[in-house]
Amino acid sequence: MKSNPNVIPDHIMGDVWPLAQPGTALSDYGSARLDPSDPVEIRSMQTFRLIYTVGKFGLDDTGGLKVVQRFTNDGGRWQTTDPSAMNYVTAVASNGVTLDLDIERLGHQRPWDRSLCVTLVKGHMRRGDTIAITFGDQSQGGPGLRMQTFCESANEYRVLVDACATRHYVPLHERPAVSVVPGKPANWRAILPSLRRPGATFSLGLRADDIWGNPSDQAQGKLHLRATGPVDGLPEIVEFPLGNRSLKIGGLTAIMEGIVRIEVADDKGAVLVRSNPLVIRQSPLEGYWGDLHGQSGETVGINPIREYFEFGRDLTMLDIMGHQANDFQIKNAFWGQINEITAEFNNDGSFVALPGYEWSGNTPTGGDHNVFFRNEGRKIHRSSHALLTDRSDCGDDAYTTHDLFEALKDEDCVLYAHIGGRPANIAQADGGALRTALEVHSDWGTFEWVMSDSFELGYRHGLVCNSDGHKGRPGASHPGASSFGALGGLTCFLASELTRDGIFDAMRRRHHYGTTGGRLHLDVSAKFANPARLFHTDPRLGDSTSECVLEAMMGDIVEVSDDTIDVAIAAETQTPVLSIDFLRGTETVHTERAYGANDLGHRYRICFHGAEYRGRGRQTTWRGNARLTGANITQFETINAWNHDRLLQQSSGDLVEFDLLTTGNFVGFDIWLNDSNVAEMDIMTDHVSGKINLTDIGLTPVTLEAGGLDRKVTITRLPDTLTSCNLSASATIALNAKGDTPVWARVMTEDGHLAWSSPIYAFHG
Q1: Low-confidence ranges of the chain (pLDDT < 70)
Q2: Which domains does the chain have, with CATH numbers?
């Protein structure tokens, strides 16, 4: 069997194996092959036979082998008890010895968490004997093995051998693997930049995703393009070739100020998708989209790092990317490769790639932080060497965030605080000028509370959203069928140019906003009755240059003499906008909706929010139903229901059933009711229940609090139809007598996306 060229080489792969081994070469312990090994489609049902041939040491009584896979795999869970069910696994020894099969939970080291342990019982095996393991055995009526939800160029079935019955498992030289490819197209995407100057050239990106969010290679045909707004160079018809996963249409020109949107239709005139908005206006800054936080297969993700960057640049049309491997898995050879790849992909004016890593200290020592360098060749200061055998550079480790900030104080870099498996503890140490932003949303969920922590501590951080994707899809990081509950986020950087210099200036001045994945344009500005002093760096950290201004933008730090400031917020959105919240620190001081009380119809949005707590096991499940009396459902749509395996369905005219997962974000559904003046809903969940008179709901949602970390159910009444994709408003906001008044914005759109601006930090001198 040919080896898969996309398997990560051992000298790069961030795993570690026993130093003590029976022999001197991995080939001593046998060999393995996978049959068949042809590419398979995501979520298809398959059957594989893994044939292990015993090596020169044989297999002793109570010895055996393990088959391990990456923890990212969200395919069917192997089982050995029900031969008529999916994912049934069997094993047979060629010499007839009894085999005990054990599906181990977290059975091996990171990232090989999935483990099948095959142990010899009352017997042994000689060199040349075989063990045949069938994954998805259909011989007794089972349908096969269900594949994962995401594409992977080398989905490995890695074999480890305990030849001498020591419970010491050594990997084979062979790396059996199969490629997992995308499914049929289900949803088209049309991607534009969000802010450009008149005269600028730009591209339109097109792709068709399968139902699980993978860009499909099965789309084809003529696409008809129609623009609204001032754009030149757009062809009326383009051909999307079969086998392509994306199509980029370049050479478009922003003619004059205005709003551009592009509609894509098929040959029959049916509209497939409308693009996000492109704002064209004269401005010193333009908007560039990035997903700076994700991992590839060399650590705890999938696919080689080159595929990671190619996916974000070519398929999701990102302008900026970073790579953020867990530091305790980064071998020195891989750190060198990270730097080589970012240097290769970085291209001024076209694409920015930033070298860096995730400092992955435990929460008591400061928690996860992302480190981004402006230049390659810098020293890595790890939180530990937990999965590294090379101890030569342990002296460079930084065991706490205090140590990390000290080690990086003279480096040209910035840091973000991340709420992942090890939530950042920003109170542990003040990052000063190094830590510029907090990650409020990722695949792990939504974490507005970290901004509250920052305000209370007196820090001045910006706000970003990224994916921390582990499934090889930066810029379009769907959670799949796993414990990740949210779509990965994006950050729009407002920068003077698409270079590392331009992006680092935007980072350090907090000129950026984050979203849960939607690409909208967002303006937040403050005007002052009297001249204010705008600081170019944070004055609490030392001397700072400044200038007199009458206006400030998101991220700015300003000293004002007035007791109030006039704040204006404007959003051009990818789908109809619901609302804009004016936030003053942790307080919502004004909500501007795209509709009024007289616009409310027979449509209700029921959403489940929150998490258990701040740590790794934050996932909250919501099991129950919503039953109506006095009305029937005429239309039903899901909101943020990314995991298609979880129950969320209209079961009858008056009943919705659900079994959902939230991780700080929200999931829910919209229902439209028939014209009834009296409608009640009984909501029953495993956390909170209640009876709600729906027809009494006005503009203010009804909330059922459920404890935990902002765990709740909300019921919102909406207009039957929304059409406006822009909303602007202004408000006068009073300043605190002492300390900062952080002023920022939250935007919600009909499709369930959120966006937040970095705060303006206003204070009295």
Answers
A1: 1-3
A2: 26-181 (2.60.40), 187-283 (2.60.40.1930), 287-519 (3.20.20.140), 520-594+727-765 (2.60.40.10), 600-718 (no CATH)
